Amino acid sequence: MADFSHEFRHNERIGIIGKNGVGKSTFVRMLIGEEPIDS
Length: 39
Description:
Shape: globular
Order of helices and strands: H
Radius of gyration: 11 Å
Distance between the termini: 8 Å
Number of helices: 1
Helix content: 10-25%
């Protein structure tokens, strides 16, 4: 996640694709600040 930045616009939609258990929900929680980024 180093050097990642993106500004989401109002009503913008994104898709996150991946297998079960690979961290999609954790990734979203990190993006919105509910989960600390520790690696």
